[in-house]
Amino acid sequence: MDLRHAVASQERGWYLKLMAPNVKGPGYAWLDPSRLYCHPQALQDCIEDLVQPFQDEAIDLVAGIDAMGFILGAAIANFLQKGFLAIRKAGHLCVESVSQPYRDYSARDKLMEMRTDAIVPGLRVLLVDQWVETGGTMRAAVQLVEKQGGVVAGVAAVCIEDSEGGSWLKKHYKWAHCVPPHLMPQFNAHYLDSFRAFDAKRGLQ
Q: Helix and strand tally (H, E) in the chain?
């Protein structure tokens, strides 16, 4: 789908067709969701879909997870007219911070950190990342917020996969993503029917 093409369809999640498949092989994520951000209507519709389930929730602060969660998180914070907190990979904050170890989707052990002056007990925080595959990264962010006495008002991402970790998050927290139920088998299988259009362009019919 052309990034400059005006789209008349209002079907929920129409913009997911804009996401591009991995063409570089192992070592990279299986797709690139950020392509949809290049389309102005797609980005707007994505934000509105993620915010909709939380319209009646009390949210005091939006927190985005380093790095791609910064894009959606900041956009959602702007939409809700709330502040934005960046949850960083370790080693980037020059202020007092609290840290949390985690294992990411590629099974690498990492450390994330968050400044200690942004969250007070009872503050309701909406956590945002671009994608939840295994759930390890988002769960570490949850732990950081709760360590500071904050309340996780919900978690949001373009997709929260039905992995063990993703299912745990869905069970324990209010959540939102952009994927209609009938498309979830494709997302869990890591191959979308819409990839065929990209394959055809590359001569991989």
A: 6, 11
Least confident range of 2-11, 85-94, 130-139 = 2-11
DSSP secondary structure of 124-149: EEEEE-SEESSSHHHHHHHHHHHHTT
Residue 112 in tokens:
């994330």
CB 102 within 8 A of CB 111: yes
The tokens 């934000």 sit on which residue? 47
pTM of this prediction?
Answer: 0.95
Residue 23 tokens, joined: 């063409």
Residue 12 vs residues 22, 26, 48, 50, 148: alpha-carbon distances, Å = 24, 31, 10, 11, 36
Backbone angles phi, psi at 150, to 5 degrees: -75, 165
